[in-house]
Amino acid sequence: MSDLPGIVVTGVSGRMGRMLAEVITASGKARLAGAVVRSGHDWIGRDLGTCFGTAPMGVTVTDDPLTAFAGAKAVIDFTTPAATLAFAKIAAQARCVHVIGTTGFEKEQIEALAPASRHCAQIRAGNMSLGVNLLTVLTRKVAEALDAEWDVEIVEAHHNRKVDAPSGTALMLGEAAAAGRGISLEENRESGRDGITGARKPGAIGFSSIRGGDIVGEHDVIFATAGERIVLRHIATDRAIFARGALKAALWGLDRKPGQYDMMDVLGL
């Protein structure tokens, strides 16, 4: 098993972190080489399996990403924008593939990721699932085919602990619709309507966010015009689909030159 490529999971104490650790360990395609948490976390220095309440896994939890990354081929990172920016610099130093599933970036933060990609393969996506990336392709194709009389609305739903809105996936779908229309999403985005907003702006791409319970992820792209609607939908019921996609991205990135990639590249879409 030691000849399998080693992968580090950051934010391993979170729901996605745990799922990633479990998927990597069970895959037979990679080994879990490190588990990183924030400084001060009470898991530091303990075996990860013990922290999970299962059998020991032989991986000691650490808050030292530099040491963890140095012994690995790839890093999978579903944390926060600020943490991801710090991890990007360390991944570049270690020449590790950096798979980024973190969402909620500001434009300037996304731009700040670029320098690190000159030294390692950096794969970032708002969503790692095959189904969502196919939905993204379909959204762009439909937007290309329909004229501006068709309004575009994106509705997303997630669990009540999600901290950013709209979701990274919703924004990815919005970018696809904007690209199909040949317009800028930044200049045509409408989010958080409330009160007397006036009539809908022609050509706008609207976003609505729902938060509740344990919803894993649901996304609808609605194209509406007088007398008819087209609805493209993806429903995720198991977080493991994102972990499997992230693992696929990490393994794909091992053979790539430094640069920025996304799941469209990984999936050949």
From TrEMBL:
EC main group: oxidoreductase
Amino-acid positions noted as binding NAD(+) in the UniProt annotation, renumbered to this chain: 11-16, 101-103, 125-128
InterPro entries: DapB_C, DapB_N, DapB_N_CS, DHDPR_bac, NAD(P)-bd_dom_sf
Domain Dihydrodipicolinate reductase C-terminal span(s) in chain numbering: 131-267
Entry's Gene Ontology BP terms: diaminopimelate biosynthetic process; lysine biosynthetic process via diaminopimelate
Function, in words: Catalyzes the conversion of 4-hydroxy-tetrahydrodipicolinate (HTPA) to tetrahydrodipicolinate.
Stated name of the protein: 4-hydroxy-tetrahydrodipicolinate reductase
Organism in which the protein naturally occurs: Paenirhodobacter hankyongi
